Amino acid sequence: MVVLKPRTATPELVINTLKGSWSLAQQTPENFTMLVVYRGLHCPICKNYLRELSRLADDFSAKGVNIITLSSDTQERAQLASTEWEIENLTMGYGLTVEQSQAWGLHRSAGRGVTSIGIEEPTEFTEPGLYLVRPDGTLYWSNINTMPFARPHYSLFVLIDSSKKNSTLVIRVLLFLFLRRLIKWLHRLILGHRCLLIPTRYCAE
After folding, report:
1. DSSP alpha helices (H): ranges in the chain?
2. Rounded CA separation 41/117 (Å)
3. Average pLDDT score over residue span 156-182
4. Distance of CA 139 to the CA centre of its chain
5. Which of 13, 35, 178, 201 has its CA 20 to 30 A from that of 126?
6. Distances (CA, A) of 67 to 37, 108, 123
7. DSSP string of 168-181?
């Protein structure tokens, strides 16, 4: 599996979006290009995650951050997500290939039928990831997931400023928040399976 390293060049990325063709090499942000990879239309957690991003899009723009969201969904499913999730202000990429996913170190999962919101999962799809890429095309920060849970919260990314004086502090705070959310999720998971973790006689009560 590919592991991208900070301060090294990111892979080439050219992808179709609902607004036309998009190329990472052609991006000229003041500070960063943010790539947000989501599972697809079938994912209710992705819906909430991208709606929050949509709400903060102007804040990111003011901080010199260009945003693209992308998935391995088809154009039709990407259009449905854009419309039904009310996130038309985001650039929605679609058709992320297996090769592109592998080049960026992303995980892939097999579909398992209909989700909780009644939408069929694709036969195979790319799992979430988030990247901050500098204007020179090198990687600044990334987060890779195997599931839609415990993804970084967007609100602290808007602390990024053009002087970069606070960048170290921002990353530390983001890491702290991510770990706190992960611990909370694991705590809920453990409570949900407590009978597997404590003596049987207590579970029977």
Report:
1. 44-62, 75-84, 98-103, 167-192, 200-203
2. 10
3. 61
4. 15
5. 178
6. 11, 22, 27
7. HHHHHHHHHHHHHH
